[in-house]
Design brief:
- By secondary structure, the chain is of the alpha/beta class.
- The protein has two domains: 3-167, NAD(P)-binding Rossmann-like Domain (Rossmann fold); 171-267, 6-phosphogluconate dehydrogenase C-terminal like domain (6-phosphogluconate dehydrogenase C-terminal fold, Orthogonal Bundle), CATH 1.10.3660.
- It has helices spanning 11-22, 35-44, 53-59, 69-79, 97-106, 148-159, 169-197, 207-212, 220-229, 231-248, 252-267; strands at 3-7, 28-32, 49-50, 62-65, 88-91, 111-113, 115-117, 138-141, 163-166.
- The strands form two sheets. The protein has a six-stranded parallel β-sheet, sandwiched between helices. It has a three-stranded mixed β-sheet with strand order 7-8-9, with helices on one face.
- The chain starts with a strand and ends with a helix.
């Protein structure tokens, strides 16, 4: 793997470039993004130069699509006539069924491996990129493959300190609705309720409220694509959470115990 092209050099794409360099990658890292993002990524050292999608696809061994979901889908639809047959295309989309279906339909000249690193920040852009962003985090892949570039890509994931997990697209989308999308919506709803009903509570807020509302800082521009492409699973998780909140009023003790057990399991994995 001599040349990597990052399409969408924001937080995740920029962090991927920095992580590659930190882990010892000595090849060329190209960036395809807006002029502002390219400038930020160059300043951080996440890429070597900015190029067009056409130039990137013509030379890259690995095309790393780190755009919002609908941007990934649009890019996948353009790549088939541009890519090298021996190349691998992978992505970081937060939902997988729609992306993998489009890749299966559109990409016939090269391999595709769906991916989702479970890492991020509230900040966006290459200026917030971090070579350590993936360390200790799951990196979900949608299939096992012996494609040569995929095997090397998986080795780099390990060098980043990430934990590879293989899930089919449907299982991925169901699990992230619970483990990622629901926490975001719960944080957003809490902050929105406080803004509506008790904005003055900010004056007496302690670290608990700061922790609980951290995700509410996230941008809807980013989450809109996620919620649209995983609507049934998100709705099911929300319905269950609403029911749990209603039930909580009748039995605090049981749910405190269940909640503590789950929270402890997250911290001792």
């Amino acid at each position: 793997m001599d040349t990597v092209a990052i399409v969408g050099v924001g937080l995740i794409g920029g962090s991927f470039g920095l992580a590659l360099r930190q882990a010892g990658f000595s090849g060329s890292i190209l960036g395809v993004s807006s002029p502002r993002s390219i400038d930020q990524a160059l300043q951080r050292g996440a890429i070597d130069r900015g190029v067009s999608l056409e130039e990137a696809a013509a030379s890259a061994d690995l095309l790393f699509l780190a755009q919002p979901i609908f941007g990934i889908i649009e890019t996948v639809g353009k790549l088939n006539s541009l890519v090298r047959p021996e190349a691998l295309v992978t992505d970081v989309g937060s939902t997988k069924q729609t992306i993998v279906a489009e890749a299966t339909r559109s990409l016939t000249r090269c391999a595709f491996l769906g991916g989702h690193p479970m890492a991020g920040k509230e900040q966006r852009g290459a200026a917030a990129a971090d070579a350590e962003l993936f360390r200790g985090r799951p990196w979900i892949l949608t299939a096992e493959t012996d494609h040569p570039v995929a095997l090397e890509f998986r080795q780099w994931i390990g060098r980043f300190g990430a934990r590879e997990i293989v899930l089919d697209p449907a299982a991925h989308d169901r699990l992230v609705a619970w483990g990622s999308h629901l926490p975001q919506l719960a944080s957003t709803a809490l902050a929105s309720a406080l803004q509506d009903r008790a904005p003055e509570s900010a004056a007496i807020a302690g670290p608990g409220l700061l922790d609980m509302t951290r995700l509410a800082l996230s941008s809807y521009d980013l989450w809109s694509d996620i919620l649209q492409t995983n609507a049934p699973a998100v709705e099911a998780a929300l319905d269950a959470y609403i029911a749990k909140l209603q039930q909580l009023k009748d039995d605090f003790a049981t749910d405190f115990a269940k909640g503590a057990a789950f929270a402890n399991s997250l911290r001792t994995r």
